[in-house]
Structure to design on (280 residues):
């Protein structure tokens, strides 16, 4: 069975499904099989990153799937160690060679790494790669408002999307409000905290029982109603399908508020505050 996922339009006109497929740490033959299965289940947006070392796996799955390339949207990300302009350009090309693709639909700066002070030149490389036809839409991950402001001020170009840690324990209310004001789409990484067990709590179970749904479905529906694009990862075809079977019910305002109220200031999974945490 294939599920049709609703879409949203980014500030540069690219249309994305509201749920994509997370791929970390899928790789190799099992990874290809899991991604092909996700595509067969109805996923069209596939997340990846240079640092996941699975751009080749994603490219292979895209070639093996029966869905035409132009119906799929593939993402990759620039690692922190290649943020200098020339290195960033070569890395985008290398990502394409690894995936054996002519273009990425989305290419994102993976972390701002503010102490390195290189993310603006990395952004200029993404802007140019888009002009050269290597990328259809450019965005970032883990950028705080001050980092986003700098990109816009120094290059005149805003990201289409910011992929951030977002789940019931860290609901990013202020960051999402800022994205809305700037018309930057919010994408949620680790949409259910990188696992399910943490979420086995009474509040979510009560709401799930009421709707005859599972806790992961309730959580992904919450992301959808917040206006965020989630990218849940699952290696299991059954759970992949479960995670996109969320478009036949809705949460009311009280349920949305109960889930949002689970958030706490220290709710990040691994304390990765982009103001200080850096990844290379
Ligand atoms: N930009 C960034 O800095 C950044 C950082 C982290 C992640 N990401 C991206 O975001 C994606 C998603 O985040 P994530 O992989 O960290 O975490 P996640 O999607 O929140 O959780 C994945 C975990 O949940 C399990 N799971 C999935 N569906 C389930 C279900 N219906 N019931 C029970 N368990 C379920 C998976 O196990 P099974 O596979 O066994 O189902 C896996 O262990 C990543 O894969 C990656 O593409 C980006």
């Amino acid at each position: 069975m294939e599920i049709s996922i609703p879409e949203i339009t980014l500030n540069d006109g690219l249309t994305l499904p509201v749920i994509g497929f997370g791929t970390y740490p899928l790789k190799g033959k099992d990874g290809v099989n899991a991604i092909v299965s996700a595509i067969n289940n109805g996923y069209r947006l596939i997340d990846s990153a240079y640092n996941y070392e699975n751009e080749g796996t994603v490219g292979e799955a895209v070639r093996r799937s029966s869905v035409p390339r132009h119906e799929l949207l593939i993402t990759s990300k620039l690692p922190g160690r290649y943020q200098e302009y020339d290195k960033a350009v070569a890395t985008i090309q290398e990502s394409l060679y690894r995936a054996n693709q002519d273009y990425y639909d989305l290419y994102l700066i993976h972390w701002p790494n503010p102490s390195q002070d290189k993310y603006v030149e990395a952004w200029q490389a993404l802007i140019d790669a888009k002009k050269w036809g290597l990328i259809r839409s450019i965005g970032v991950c883990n950028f705080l408002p001050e980092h986003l402001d700098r990109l816009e001020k120094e290059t005149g170009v805003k990201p289409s999307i910011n992929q951030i840690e977002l789940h019931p324990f860290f609901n990013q209310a202020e960051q999402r409000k800022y994205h809305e004001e700037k018309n930057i789409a919010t994408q949620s990484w680790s949409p259910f905290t990188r696992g399910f067990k943490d979420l086995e709590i009474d509040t979510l179970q009560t709401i799930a029982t009421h709707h005859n749904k599972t806790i992961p479905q309730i959580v992904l529906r919450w992301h959808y109603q917040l206006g965020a694009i989630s990218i849940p990862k699952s290696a299991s075809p059954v759970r992949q399908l479960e995670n996109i079977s969320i478009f036949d019910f809705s949460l009311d305002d009280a349920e949305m508020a109960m889930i949002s109220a689970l958030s706490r200031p220290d709710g990040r999974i691994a304390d990765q505050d982009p103001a200080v945490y850096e990844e290379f």
